[in-house]
Amino acid sequence: MTPLAALFAILGALLIGAISPGPSFVFVVRTAVAQSRADGIAAALGMGVGAMIFGTLALLGLRTLMTEAAGLYTVLKIAGGLYLVYLAVRIWRGAKDPVEVVRNGGSGGSSLGHSFGLALATQMSNPKIIAVFGAVFAALLPAARPLWLDLTLPTLIFVQETAWYALVALAFSSSRPRALYLGAKSWIDRAAGAVIGVLGIRLLLEAR
Q1: What is the pLDDT of residue 21?
Q2: Which among 33, 41, 152, 173 could disulfide-bond with 37, CB atoms 3.0 to 4.6 Å apart, if both were Cys?
Q3: Which phi-psi region, left, alpha or beta, contains residue 105 (left: φ > 0; alpha: ψ -120 to 50)?
Q4: How confident is the model at residue 102 (pLDDT cuts 50, 70, 90)?
Q5: What mean pLDDT do residues 158-186 have?
Q6: pTM to 2 decimals?
Q7: Per residue in 2-51, pLDDT tens?
Q8: What is the CA radius of gyration of the chain?
């Protein structure tokens, strides 16, 4: 496989992984609907930065870390699992809390920074993205590759992930999806919290 073909194959595989719903998708949807469109876009940027970091780590040998540095990888899995459980508890406990809807993207800078930071932490602790990046890079990244591929791939991963989650944020911050969410907020939040909590517990069990 040529380096250019490998580039498109990796980006395509990662896009499929991003489209598949997981903690990152749930977080962006909930942020865009319950807070504001601007917060949703900030969360999308956080997801993009997190994916770019994973792409860079994969290029530097994430696969080696996963297979040879077992102790460090176990610590990372435990930290990620604990954060997902913490996030699940927060969502579940706030399921019945009323949502103050901010319209027209009116969100303060501190709120945007908070949304970005939580999104980045959620992406970095996402067990799905760890598995996807490890498998995709191990299968598709050429052993002998040109420097331009190493320099280009992380940036394109950032653009692709940010664009996808920004599209999700824009779609779910529209009036109709927002109204549907607010009408069933407690059930949706509890379901989302349960899913994220199960993923966190699973990650902790895998780290044993």
Answers
A1: 60
A2: 173
A3: left
A4: very low
A5: 83
A6: 0.68
A7: 888 889 988 988 887 777 667 788 889 888 887 888 999 999 999 999 99
A8: 18
DSSP assignment of the chain: --HHHHHHHHHHHHHHHHHS-SHHHHHHHHHHHHT-HHHHHHHHHHHHHHHHHHHHHHHHTHHHHHHH-HHHHHHHHHHHHHHHHHHHHHHHHTTTS---PPPTT---HHHHHHHHHHHHHHHHT-HHHHHHHHHHHHHHS-SS--HHHHHHHHHHHHHHHHHHHHHHHHHHTSHHHHHHHHHTHHHHHHHHHHHHHHHHHHHHHHT-
| Token reading at 133 | 């990046």
Distance CA 41, CA 60 (A): 29
